[in-house]
Design goal:
This protein is α+β, with helices and mostly antiparallel strands and 288 residues long. Helices cover 25% and strands 21% of the residues. It contains 7 helices and 10 strands. β9 and β10 form a beta hairpin. It is elongated and about 65 Å long. The C terminus is likely disordered. The chain binds a DNA duplex (14 and 14 nucleotides) through α6.
DNA sequence: CTCTATGTTTAATT
DNA sequence: GAATTAAACATAGA
């Protein structure tokens, strides 16, 4: 269930569950989720440590321990953390568990569930490259319009692809990018470097709207069990909620995208020069 | 059986 | 080299 709002909910949930407590037991039998570490590394490094802080950047979760070491958790496509009774046996999708005891003596058990195992857990003494390379987080850092516009200027790839680039903005996935561009009334295939300042402003507003909306639906339900109502994501073939014309489906950067050809305008680069023709031509790469 | 899926990385192709 | 595409990963559900 992973995109920024989901991971934010997971962060709050994990913080409430683990924050300030001491790890009494940790284990995993899964070779894949803990790569590159052997499953035994979990128990070896975590037992006895106290959880100092749980934080999030983009789609990554970070649990900082009292000795400064960290557990990084990426939920992949189907990952989730959920509390279980300490004595409850592992279910089919459980890939790891971390048991703790609070300062008041309350014992609890956090289970990492992930049927597809695209998610991963990484143990490290310090921050890892996957974390430090992330761009600004829309919730924690806000969205810097000038910086976003500058990032768009540097590439002609589709604007939707730029939005999903975790080094441009951390936490935007296929759902948020699709929804935000619909709010902004911009065709997701538009070249990034064709967008004007006001287009970027519209996208920033669209992102805020989409993030806020998804966060709200999640806050109103049990962690990990929200029922989303999207405007256009997954709705190709259905009518556009804004103008009723049929939403179409295209693939951008390998990801399914739904949008309205009628109200989402395709931006184009300004025409190089007037007609003329023949010779000329090899450039238009003026932008470097 | 077929197709699709909220993510990321890596190989292949243009 | 840069940019674009496809495949791979593993599993569940329609």
């Amino acid at each position: 269930m992973p995109e920024l709002p989901d991971v934010e909910i997971a962060k709050r949930y994990l913080d409430e569950l683990l924050g300030g407590s001491t790890i009494t037991r940790a284990e995993s039998k899964d070779q894949r989720v803990l790569r590159p570490h052997p499953p035994s590394a979990l128990a070896r490094t975590l037992a006895g440590r106290t959880v100092r802080e749980v934080s999030r950047r983009g789609k990554w979760l970070r649990v900082v321990l009292d000795d400064g070491s960290r557990i990084f958790s990426h939920l992949g496509m189907t990952g989730w953390w959920e509390e279980r009774e300490v004595d409850q046996p592992a279910e089919r999708s459980e890939r790891a568990r971390i048991d703790v005891v609070s300062p008041e003596g309350r014992a609890r058990s956090a289970r990492y569930l992930d049927s597809r195992r695209f998610g991963r857990l990484i143990l490290s003494q310090g921050d890892i490259a996957e974390w430090t390379a992330l761009g600004p987080d829309p919730l924690a850092d806000g969205i810097d319009m000038a910086a976003l516009a500058a990032a768009f200027t540097r590439t002609r790839r589709a604007v939707k692809e730029s939005l999903m680039d975790q080094s441009v903005l951390a936490g935007i996935g296929n759902i948020l990018a699709t929804e935000a561009l619909w709010h902004a009334k911009i065709d997701p295939r538009s070249p990034s470097n064709a967008l004007s300042r006001s287009d970027v402003a519209a996208i920033v507003r669209g992102l805020r709207t989409a993030i806020r909306r998804e966060l709200k639906t999640r806050e109103a339900s049990e962690p990990g069990h929200a029922h989303d109502i999207f405007s256009v994501y997954g709705r190709a073939g259905e009518p556009c909620p804004r103008d009723g014309s049929t939403l179409v489906r295209v693939v951008i950067a390998g990801r399914t995208t739904a949008f309205c050809k009628h109200c989402q305008v395709r931006k184009r680069r300004a025409k190089p020069r007037a007609s003329r023709s023949r010779a000329a031509s090899p450039e238009r790469l003026a932008s470097r």
